[in-house]
Automatic annotation (TrEMBL):
Superkingdom: Bacteria
Compartmental location: Bacterial flagellum basal body; Cell membrane
Name of the protein this chain belongs to: Flagellar motor switch protein FliM
NCBIfam families xrefs: fliM_switch (TIGR01397)
Annotated Pfam families: FliM, FliMN_C
CDD domains recorded: FliM
Main location: other
Membrane is among the record's keywords: yes
Family listed: Belongs to the FliM family.
Membrane topology qualifier: Peripheral membrane protein
Keywords from the named record: Bacterial flagellum, Cell membrane, Cell projection, Chemotaxis, Cilium, Flagellar rotation, Flagellum, Membrane
Domain Flagellar motor switch protein FliN-like C-terminal: from-to ranges: 254-323
Length: 332
């Protein structure tokens, strides 16, 4: 098992202790050989692997790019959003970390169970609101005094923004985000139990000259059904399937350009070989179908359609009437 990596200051301190005689090399070696026990806090249960956290980070990096494009178009000003961190912590700790008065949006992501939280720093939220209302993007701190109009504008803006999550999550799940609640006081918002593990994706956000954070809180219960989709193995299989489908698409395009013989069968007749050998130019053959009945259209020798014979200008032609199904040579 690999040991902990020491910083340069810790290395210098150890070398200094050995050189001055405060600690001997044997004592240090003995400490390394002793079994070290790490304290495990059950309130901070790690329910996601590092690999899964990395996958969530990649997904929300794409989400951050989509949000940047959306808000840049909506606000018509400089907007930059990027992933700052992705951590798993208890829900109680997340609630304690956000300001007492902030912008909290609650989303359902059907068909998954549970709800997501999106916490927007008030400075960022008010800068966005000011731009939407025609201002220069100035921020303010009056979350507790939000009017009904301001609440409606903000909720509509963040509801539209969260639609981008559907595209960002497309590789792991097909979801339909819906805004269900809008709050300004996190103490009034109890989505899950305090000790439930959540993943918090922190986004660095710059709107004009205002900067702040947007936090996306995803409970474990929401991700539990699709956790296997967050593994590297799943991503590799997905990429393989996509490349395979690309090959099939190319093959399909080539097949579509292949030439096929099309023939219209007016009818058939039975005769003896002796009669066949005596046929001459001008002889009339009686077919087994009426003149007003549709003819069979063969594609590559296989009967596929019924058609009505007719004339196109000075040429003979047929008009497709119906599709033939159920034949032995039929693919369907």
């Amino acid at each position: 098992m690999a040991g902990d990596i020491l910083s340069q200051n810790e290395i210098d301190a150890l070398l200094s202790a050995i050189s001055t005689g405060e600690r001997s090399a044997d004592e240090i070696r003995k400490e390394e050989q002793e079994k070290k026990v790490k304290v495990y806090d059950f309130k901070r249960a790690l329910r996601f692997s590092k690999d899964q956290i990395r996958s969530l980070t990649r997904i929300h990096e794409n989400f951050a790019r989509l949000l940047t494009t959306f808000f840049s178009a909506q606000l018509r000003t400089f907007v930059q959003i990027s992933v700052a961190s992705a951590d798993q912590i208890p829900y109680e700790e997340f609630i304690r970390s956000v300001p007492k008065m902030t912008i909290l949006n609650v989303y359902e992501v059907a068909p998954l169970d549970g709800k997501l939280l999106m916490e927007i720093n008030p400075n960022i939220a008010y800068a966005m609101l000011d731009r939407v209302l025609g201002g220069r993007g100035a921020s303010a701190s009056k979350v507790e005094n939000l009017t009904e109009i301001e609440t409606k504008i903000m909720s509509n803006m963040f509801e539209q923004a969260f639609d981008s999550l559907r595209e960002a999550w497309a590789t792991i799940a097909d979801i339909d985000p819906i805004l269900t609640d809008f709050e300004v006081n996190p103490q009034f918002l109890q989505v899950i139990s305090p000790n439930e593990t959540v993943v918090v994706i922190t986004l660095n956000t710059i709107v004009g000259e205002t900067s702040g954070m947007i936090n996306i809180c995803i409970p474990h219960v929401v991700l539990e059904p699709i956790i296997p989709n967050l593994s590297v193995k799943y991503w590799m299989q997905t990429n393989k399937k996509e490349s395979k489908s690309e090959e099939l698409l190319q093959l399909e395009k080539r097949v579509e350009k292949a030439d096929l013989t099309i023939s219209a069968e007016l009818g058939s007749s039975m005769m003896a070989i002796e009669e066949f050998l005596l046929l001459e130019v001008g002889d009339v053959l009686e077919l087994n179908c009426r003149y007003d009945e549709p003819v069979t259209l063969r594609i590559g020798g296989v009967p596929k359609f019924t058609a009505q014979p007719g004339q196109i200008g000075k040429k003979l032609g047929v008009q497709v009437i119906d599709e033939l199904k159920g034949g032995e040579d039929d693919d369907e």
